[in-house]
Amino acid sequence: MAAPFSFEIELLSLLAVMLVGSIVSRRVRLPYTMILVFLGIAIASLSISSLTGIDTLYSGILGNSFVALVLPPLLFESMMNIRSSELKTAIRPAILMATVGVVLATIVGGLLLWKLAGLPVYEAFLFSSLISPTDTASVLEIFKRLRVPRKLAALMDAEAAFNDATGLIVFSIILASGSSSSLANFQFASPALNFAILLGGGVIVGLLLGFGAEIISSMISDSLSETILSISMVYGSYAISTALGFSGLVSVAVTGLYYGNLTLRTVVRPLSKEQVKTFWGVVAFMANSVAFLYIGLNTNIFKLYASMQLILVAYAAVIAARIAVVYPIMTFFGRLAERTRRWKNVAVLGGMRGAISVAIVASIPVAAISAQIRSTLLTMVLGVVFLSIVIQGPSLARYIRRAFPEEQVDQSESPEVRLSSSLGAIEELQKLWSEGKIEGGIFASRLEDERERLAELMAEINSALKTGDVVKSRARDLFSSISSISRTRPAEAMWRRRTDGQDEESQDDVQDRGG
């Protein structure tokens, strides 16, 4: 019997996989999340997870707490960076897509799987409900690498943050209805009231904790205490809302919005603000890594291949349901942008599914459904999530580059040209603001964008040495050190001979005097 791995070895293995995934992603220019999924599949298929102890770490420490540990940092970090001025124009379609849209997607997807794919009505609608929420982590990773209009990014982030609550409610209602063979027998007991309690309670808790944290933050002057306060706020809002029967994820999202738009801008010192943002950027990156590695570790590629026909039908139904939600709602709110067609396409491709659907199906109580239904649902969910990441991820990245070329940074330009362009944009902003042609909020928002671009440029300039250059540079340093040591050895030997000779002469003199 193999000895159990220590926590340190398990954690080291997990961090090593994250590091390898990050390096490979940069080299092959594929989404980091996709690389992690493939690494997870490879680890699981080759039984490496048991050798490294990663499976023990996931099943033991994460276990049923996966959603509570991993998703709050992702939501908080994304909502913290959404500006209220951008959210004002995106909040209504985002809320509509996160509520009515999820219900509509469940109905459309369930009907397609029931009538066209021939699945039993209970399984069809149960699967459709748990796969309907879009995934926050999937889209964020792409949006961080590629620029899109900030209002569109705010729309997608807000939808992904709030649709989890709707999806969980619809899923719970259908799960509780039992294996009914008819839609008429479904027991939709007060769904509107349940939704209002879950969503409204989460909003209230998030606002109260956000306000309380702002008061405490005004008493803090150091960065470490501010960071600890933000950690307590994130997990505290989730824990309190969940304990009260509200949506913990909605509470975290509201807390993040409050903290990013009020607390950070009013009471937090500039240095602390940068350190808190950096900290949550690192935490979100690690949470994102854990989420997608979790998907890969739970994906049996051979089982998916055996059920590929069912998975393809399920994936087609999910895409059709997404189109049925996005196009009508975003057409209704067409004044959001002059070119809503591009926004609609990004919203459809960006409606990716991820770890939360896998976590939901894995957390279904054993007594709630039969083992056969559980196995079918798990296979369908993992298959759709896998196809969503592999197909929609690269497609979304390519479409963003083509549809929003003005938003992208031309990496082929020299740093000098990009620096001049950024400084020119800042001067133009200052001119418009001094002439009163733009509002102070818009000026601050655009100035923050240019500050981020300058920070990226500085980081690129500081890390200009490539791997080969680093190896050559260190080899030259080592050779110079060895050569310097070898040149000093003859001189040292001569000095020692002279010193030894002097010592011998001195001893002879002492002996002569003694004689």
How does this model look, in words?
This protein is mainly alpha-helical. It has helices at residues 7-28, 32-45, 48-52, 54-62, 66-80, 84-98, 100-115, 121-131, 136-145, 150-176, 191-217, 223-243, 248-266, 270-297, 301-306, 308-332, 340-349, 355-362, 371-403, 415-434, 440-462, 467-514. The protein has 22 helices and no strands. Helix 5 (66-80) crosses helix 12. The longest helix has 48 residues, at 467-514. Mean pLDDT is 76; it is low at 179-189.
**CATH architecture title of the largest domain:** Up-down Bundle
Strand content: under 5%
State the low-pLDDT regions, or none: 179-189
Based on helices, strands and strand pairing, what is the structural class?
mainly alpha
Mean pLDDT: 76
Using the coordinates above, name the CATH class of the largest domain: Mainly Alpha
Q: Helicity range of the residues?
A: over 70%
Number of domains: 3
Individual helix count = 22
Radius of gyration: 29 Å
Per DSSP E runs of 2 or more residues, the count of β-strands stands at 0
Shape: globular
Distance between the termini: 79 Å
Q: Quick one: biggest sheet?
A: none
CATH domain topology of the largest domain: Na+/H+ antiporter like fold
Series of secondary-structure elements, N-terminal to C-terminal: HHHHHHHHHHHHHHHHHHHHHH
